[in-house]
C-alpha cells in the first residue's frame, strides 16, 4: 500500500521522519510490537523456551525510518572504523563468505610461516541471548563513546525506551507488556545496534586475529606449540568472560568449540578452559591437521 501511495504521500512521510529525528521523537505506535514465536531449526524439545525465536512485527512506517537509519549507521561505522574489519552481519560489502575467506587465509599464512609451520588454534564462541541480552543504557553509553551525534542518540534512546510487546501464538494473543531490556528481533535497526554494542569485544587483546558474524565470534591463536596457543586461548577466553560480566553479556559454554591445526595428532590435547568445562571433556569436537 505504501509503495502504491508513495507518489502522493512520500513527501509527507519524509517530513515526518525528519521531524522525528530532529526532535528525538519516536511515536509509541512504532515501539509496540506483536511478537510471533518461530521454532528454531533442529530443536526437538519445544517445551524449552530457548527453542523458539521471537520475531517482532512492527509498524511499516516505523520500520521505514529504522531501515534508513540502519543503512546510514552501517556505512558510517565502516567508514570511521568503529567496527572491526572482520566484524560482519547486516553490513554492506561484508558477508559470511568474506569472514570464512579471511579465516582460511590467516590459517594458511600461519601454517606456511618460515620453514617451521606454526601451530594454529581456533576458538569459536556464541553470545548467549544476543539481541535479548542488550542492556539499553549501556548501549546508549557505548554509542556516545563511539562519537555518534547527539540528535541520533536522543532518537535511539526513545526508540529503545518503553517498548511494548504482546505475544501471539496460534490463535491466542497475550496482553501487551513493557520490555525492560533487549532490542527487537525483526527491526532493521537491531543488527547494526548489536554490532555496535559488541564492537569493543573485537578490540580486546590476546588473540592473533578475531572474527565475528552477528552473535558468533571466533579467535585465532598462532604459536610454536600447542601449549603456547592453548595458554593464549585460555587468557583470551578469561578476558572475554570478564568483559561480558562488565557489559552484561554471557557466552554459551555449550556452543564453544576448539580446532587445532598442527603437524601431529595428539591424544592428550592441552586443556582449553571455558567456565567449568575444559578440552579434557571436549565441547564438541577437536581436530588436528
Automatic annotation (TrEMBL):
Gene Ontology molecular function terms on file: RNA-directed DNA polymerase activity
Localization, UniProt: Mitochondrion
Species this chain originates from: Akanthomyces lecanii RCEF 1005
Protein name: Reverse transcriptase
Residue stretches making up the Reverse transcriptase domain: 19-289
Record key words, sorted: Mitochondrion, Nucleotidyltransferase, RNA-directed DNA polymerase, Transferase
Pfam family, one: RVT_1
PROSITE patterns: RT_POL
GO cellular component, one term: mitochondrion
Domain of life assignment: Eukaryota
Keyword set includes Ribosomal protein: no
